[in-house]
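Protocol step 4 of 5: obtain the predicted structure for the target chain.
Materials: sequence only (see below). No template structures provided, no constraints applied. The aim of this step is simply to have a reference model before the mutagenesis design in step 5. Sequence pasted as it appears in the construct record:
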Amino acid sequence: MILTLDRKRKAPKGNPVKTRAIEQRYGLQLKRVAQQVGAIIQPFNPGDLSQVPTIQHLLNAYADVLHSWATQTASNMLMEVALRDEQTWKLIARDMGRSLRDEILNAPTGQVMRDLLAEQVHLIKSIPREAGERVHLLTLEGIENATRAKQIATEIMRSEEVAASRAMLIARTEVTRTATNLTQARATHIGSEGYIWRTAGDGDVRPSHKAMNGKYVPWNKPPILDKLTGHAGCVPNCRCYAEPVLPD
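Step 4 output (structure tokens):
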């Protein structure tokens, strides 16, 4: 979250808001949900179609009772990112005038945090719900294609693995998206109209995002890359970040 006054300045080395450790902790928490999905499905016989409604009912019930835990877990992640975000702005704002520094640090981020919390709770609860839907669809496929019954049964028993993959995708995407949303809230509060797109700068950066590196992006016009619309760090598996451009 480098505050750029001159668009020609040298690009910074790496995202100044360090989110990797937060992402790992959040991912481990969400994988606990995937493990419980596996524990719910494991006792059932995947070849017994009469048991599928019960599996779905249990997974949906689990999603419902997750609400309080999901709220606390998501809150912890959001507060960690918000603290890193605020600390970074404090370091950068030392060289600014007092009034501008106070404006940055007192930006109205509350609504952003509330919106993000609601979205995180929904995503966490979606893990068991999507697992139940997947079991249902696989079962229908087994009915339509009896020759694949054994293969489909194996796929049903992989539900924990699939849910764990979904959990890690949520963790990777949502931590960086939180950081970008907080950056945008503070930057636009003091008049920023856009940012410089920065990548992680390694071989894993997808070509479309590599092509965006160093380009100016208006906050009100998120780009469309690979058929996905979103700012740096806001689309699945994106490790890019926004370097705000402030008005003179």
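Step 4 remarks: The first strand starts at residue 194 and ends at 198. The two ends are 17 Å apart (CA to CA).
Proceed to step 5.
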